[in-house]
Every structure is written in structure tokens, then in C-alpha cells.
Amino acid sequence: MNHKLSVLISKQLIKLGAVPQEQKDIYVYGLELIFSFLFCVTTIFAVSLFVHKTIEALVFMVLFVLIRQFTGGLHANTYLKCQLYTIGGYLSVAFLSSKLLPSFALHAILIMVGIVIIIAIGPIESEKKPLTPQDRARNKKIGVALFGSAGIGGIATVSVHPAISSTIFYSLSLIIILMIIPYMERRE
Description:
- The two termini are 35 Å apart.
- The chain contains seven helices and no strands.
- The chain is mainly alpha-helical.
């Protein structure tokens, strides 16, 4: 459905003269990404409204989208799988954060382990978007800084906002797991 709608909109933009014909594929791809992202965000926020966890959903989305831009990780081979994995990841984070509240010590361990993993194997590249050595070094530094900052935010909120702290902890854990999976698959 995303593809058909993206093609239809791109054809209309070409017809109106807003887009050159030779850039149609770029616009179709860009619109597919936008629609896929909007579907995920809308679904996640609809679920979060239902369970009264909108702030936690916002924390998850900001961390997940922002940090993964620089650390990379598992990528699905279709938009539908990507949407389902992201929504499933959010549901897992929401469930775990409502049942298991990590301690200060667990946050500290996650920060240390996560930073070591990002330095050792990050960023995990997508086969469709290889990185230059300069981009890899820059993304690694930014990924470490963002991950560490978010982890410190998780520690700072342990006693003040345990639900947010827990959401940060499980979101960061998911990001690391999604880095390890493709790394291990490539080693086999």
C-alpha cells in the first residue's frame, strides 16, 4: 500500500511539474520511508494513549530513532517487517518497563557494556548504505556520546521517574541487541 500510494503521489507531482520525471524513483522511495515512519509513530502513540504511557513512548521513539542513526543495527528487508519489528520493540520495552524496574547499578552496567559494544562493533552498516571510514568514526563517536548521555539520563531519573528511567534502560538495551544480531549473523 505504501508503494502504490507513493507512486500515485509521485506521478501527481510530476504531472503538476513540481518534480522532474527522472527523479520519480527518488520521490517514491522518500515517500515510502515517510509513510512507513508515520505508520510506526502513529501506531506506537495510539498504543501509548491506550495504556496511558505517552511520555514513555516519546522517550522510546526519540532514543530509538536518534541513537540508531549513528549506531546502526538490524534492518528488515521490507517496510512491513520494519514496522512490525519497531512496534514489537516498543511493546517489549513498554511491557518490561512496567514490570521490571532496573536499579542504579544495572543502568551503570548497561552504560559501560553498551559503550564497549558500540566502540567494538559499531556502527553496524546497512548493506544498502555503506559508510566511509570517516563516517564510521564520526558515527561511532556520536553513538557513544548519545548512548552515554541517555544512560546517564536513565540513572538520573531512577528515583524521580522510575517509569521513564525504565523506558530508557530497555530502549538502550534494545538498541544494543539490534546491533549484536546482525554482527553475529555476519560472523557466521
